Amino acid sequence: MPSLSKTEIQKNDMKGKGPTQNTFKKAKIREAIDGWLFSLPFVISALVFFIGPLIVAFLLSFKQYSFLDGSILDAEWVGFSNYIRAFKDPVFRKALLNTTIYAIGVVPTQLVIALALALVVNSKIKGKTFFRTAYYIPTITSTVAVAIMFMFLFKSDGVLNKFLGLFGVNPYTWYDNIYLALPLIMLMAIWSSIGLYMIIFLAGLQDIPDSLYEAASIDGASKWQQLIYITIPMLKPTIFFNLVVSLIGAYQIFDQAYVISDGNGGPLNSTMTVVLYLYKMGFDEFDMGYACAIGFILFVIIFILTLIQKKFFGEETKM
Amino acid sequence: MEKKKGIKFSRIIFYLIIIGYALIALGPYIWTFITSLKPTSEVNNFSIDFSTLSFKNYTFLWKKFPFGRWFLNSVIVAAIVSIGNVLFNSLAGYALARINFPGRKALFLAVLSMMMVPGQIVMVPTFMLLTKLGWVNTYKGLTIPFLTSLFGIFLMRQFFLSMPKSIEEAATIDGLGRFGIFFRIVLPMAKPALATQFIITFNGNWNSFLWPSLLAKSSEMYTLPVGLNSFQGQYYQFWDQVMAGVMILSIPSIIIFLIFQKNFIKGISTTGMKG
């Protein structure tokens, strides 16, 4: 309670100078001015670059507007037709399907691997710091660099195909193949963010008190039982947090899809994602109203998914 | 005896798993680095002929292509954005943690709600605004909209809440004003959190692609990820050079991470953001 200290100081002040209503009021005004002055840069930035544009985006999503048209105010109201159009648009539906496949494939895989690695790294092993560092490096690398690296590794005469060839797998240029391009993006996403979730799991693991494990092992619980009955339940808030972050990130996939398809979501829209389609509609087709509607659909999807997870995980999760 | 054997066996499996995964995590970098040292003719040769390796590709990219310029742009943009974030996020975070002003609760609630909105929603109107302002393809456009961050404010608020109040109280009694306390006492005490904020923002901005690809239109304004992507699109058959470009983009991140590992891990485990 930050207010407490201030009133204490105030009391001391009053003892010295005599209790006048005036000094108290002055201090309150001072607090108000200071508070808003400190927040001012953020408030301005949020209003100009977030809240304002958000309102404009909302209005635009009900209008037929192209950037080349001139004033937004003159643009024609079209009601919900941008939203309706999205659900009839085969390319948008494909984008939504791709993004959902991507999320279903990536989110559980990366969290399970991250948790397994966190458990291993958290046990008493030598070189813990080295492994933690090694696993984390892909996370801090640019998505563009990762995408290009994977394109190179997975081209038809690349090292991965050479390796797979040892097992009799035919070589393909993954990023040019309608069946393999999306899985390639999924692979690079899993590879590049396991470290992130591992670190968060590690922090969660370290918060579990040792006494719980001690008590359990006195009672004769095996390592496996300890994992199921202590570790996993105690990690619930961390798992929820990771799930939310990972799922929100998954629905916003853009960079990798842009790089491997040269910005067009190809081959044959097999790497078209929701954000990439929004980008294309907004900045290649100048169909701004439609692009904004796609943005709000994305927001609603993410919002609903977060609520479902919250329900599923119950109220005890702190977020 | 029996039990000891069991433990040993699980140890071996543990080490196999973690070493195996370390190879998966680092292997692509090693292969990329080796390729970047090869001449183009050797790219598809999987044995390494050490006599042909050289840093030629790097000097080539630096001299014949604007990689130097792109690198400089990335440094300038990331530095400005990071300084802005350190200053403004800690100001706002401090107000939310310590100053009892009317509207504080509402402001914090606003921060939390905005964190739930995907940033891509505002892409179209923000781009239109920046076009109106004439900021597209300028450093202004690449930096000013990104000077504060919701996650950063959240991180700083948590930090200030956990800081002991007694020193600030003593300073108040000594007659120091709010700004004096903040700049002379609070910020010096917050150095570790500020460093975390700076490094994570710097790395996030260094790697950022979506916004710079919209806002940097001509080659001399490209940041490194945008530049590398356009280079890759045109010269993809020269994988050795492209891989050198990948290394130029990745190595600064890796070096910064190796030096400031603790800061990264602290920032990530508090907010789950990687910048």
TrEMBL record, chain B:
Keywords: Cell membrane, Membrane, Transmembrane, Transmembrane helix, Transport. It comes from the Bacteria. PROSITE patterns: ABC_TM1. The keyword Lipid metabolism does not apply. SUPFAM superfamilies: MetI-like. GO terms for biological process: transmembrane transport. It is a multi-pass membrane protein. The keyword Transferase does not apply. GO terms for cellular component: plasma membrane. It is found in: Cell membrane. The chain crosses the membrane at residues 12-31, 70-94, 106-130, 142-160, 181-202, 238-260. Residues 71-260 form the ABC transmembrane type-1 domain. Belongs to the binding-protein-dependent transport system permease family. This is ABC transporter permease. It comes from Thermohalobacter berrensis.
